[in-house]
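Exam revision sheet. Question 4 asks you to relate a sequence to its structure. Input first:
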Amino acid sequence: MANKMDGPQPAMTIAKEARREFIIVSLLALSALIAALILRQALWSSLAAILGFVWVGLALFFRDPSRTIQREDSHYYAPADGKVVVVEQAHEPVFLQSEALRIAIFMSISDVHVNRTPGKGIVLFTHHVPGKFVQAFRPEAAHENEHNLIGVEYGRDRFLIKQIAGILARRIVCSVRPDDELNAGDRIGMIKFGSRVELFLPSDCQALVQPGDIVRAGITPVARSSDVG
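Answer key, structure tokens:
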């Protein structure tokens, strides 16, 4: 097994996909704080306090911690932080076009929202699908909600990552494009304010997790390839 740290960066930073919102709120909070200190009015003090709470919330929501990424070719790793809610065999009609091992992970608002690729390969396919915004833990969310698909190929194997929006998470960010080369654990985007990520693997993979397990993106192995004994 090979472990690899994320590239040189602070132990904790803000996800690049959310820096615009974070900078805007930071400037607003700083401006309100300066006005409160200068004018000494209750209105500005209240506004500064509210924006301060919003700033702390965004820092938690959009945090992107540096991680030691697992790199074992026989394993697939969690694409998201959260709780495993589904492990089953299911037909995947879009990219694999066959039976697949389906693993679904629910992301709460307290989880890290950055998504990572579960294995190495070349991106062949990305596709955004409009839809509803029902609660992500409900089974129908997988089919009815807005989602984004990322299809990756490595050798003879293919896998599909499905980023699914939820009732709060109404913006999916995909940071990869076709022909991008990925290593296990590379960042592929995020779902702002949490939601659900599903992974479709070759049907002969062995699941290493079960519903209720807590997983971390790029760290927790969720399945083992059948190509390696």
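Marking note for examiners. The domain at 73-224 is CATH 2.70.70.10 (Glucose Permease (Domain IIA)).
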